[in-house]
Design brief:
This protein has helices at 2-16, 20-34, 71-82, 110-126, 150-156, 162-166, 190-203, 231-241, and strands at residues 58-60, 92-94, 100-106, 132-134, 143-148, 170-174, 179-184. By secondary structure, the chain is an alpha/beta fold. The protein has a domain at 92-241: Collagenase (Catalytic Domain) (3-Layer(aba) Sandwich). The longest helix has 17 residues, at 110-126. It is globular, with a radius of gyration of 18 Å.
Length: 243
């Protein structure tokens, strides 16, 4: 038993040194072949390159624009805004150039409704170039948020990879000025739901990747239930939309 424990520790250490793509490959292999429900982080990004247009939605990263920010903030911004969950990293920044109009569907509750309004309020104070609002008519929306199970969400968005939904508690997909996301409310408690809502919605703004650098950050790759933006998160959001 002791030897088995030592081998397990060694495997975990070796796993931590792999890049995220190889880590995901291993976890997906385990999920498919051993019927487990593992998750590396809690979000995924599915980038459809053909859906991204030019103009103000896309911009080549130019570090000279951010000389008023600290080196620490710039390095974190590059990691979060230019990184990709799937595929290689990019040199192009992606953002919304039109107002985000959110429609909520599924089994929400007062606590999640209140949290969403709080997140929207905070983002509107941080972002000068677009407004974010919650709408009651789906035909007026360009951002769809679903609270429920991954199976029910898959029925609504059947082109989404079911294995990815099964192994993640939250998911988002962003196109030019539209997107959709879900939060699993059956495999999580209310604090985890609030965290996932903030993380997925914020990342759908164009901040696609995660990092192990700052445990207090909403973009933290490891397990976290933070429900507030860290100061460096606010910097990153500001850098993407107000420069």
């Amino acid at each position: 038993m002791k030897k088995l424990f030592q081998i397990s520790i060694l495997c975990l250490v070796l796993f931590s040194f792999l890049n995220k793509k190889n880590q995901k490959f291993i976890l997906n292999f385990i999920n498919k072949n051993f019927d487990t429900d593992l998750s590396l982080g809690k979000n995924q990004f599915e980038e459809n390159n053909s859906s991204f247009g030019g103009g103000s939605n896309s911009e080549l990263f130019d570090e000279s624009k951010y000389k008023n920010y600290s080196k620490e903030s710039i390095e974190y911004f590059k990691e979060i805004a230019l990184g990709r969950e799937f595929g290689s990293d990019s040199k192009v920044l992606k953002r919304w150039s039109q107002n985000m109009k959110i429609y909520v569907d599924g089994k929400t509750n007062d606590k999640l409704d209140k949290e969403l309004k709080q997140i929207v309020s905070e983002l509107n104070k941080l972002i000068n170039t677009i407004d974010i609002e919650i709408v009651s008519d789906i035909s007026e929306s360009n951002m769809y948020i679903y609270f429920g199970s991954y199976l029910d969400f898959h029925k609504i968005k059947p082109k989404t990879d079911l294995d990815i939904l099964k192994s993640n508690l939250g998911y988002f997909n962003k196109k030019d000025n539209s997107g959709y996301m879900y939060v699993d409310i059956y495999r999580t408690n209310i604090e985890e739901q609030k965290h996932l809502l903030r993380e997925e919605l914020t990342q759908s703004l164009g901040l696609f990747d995660d990092s192990y650098k700052y445990p207090e950050s909403i973009f933290y790759q490891g397990w976290s239930t933070t429900t507030e933006y860290a100061p460096i998160d606010r910097e990153v959001i500001d850098m993407l939309y107000n420069n």
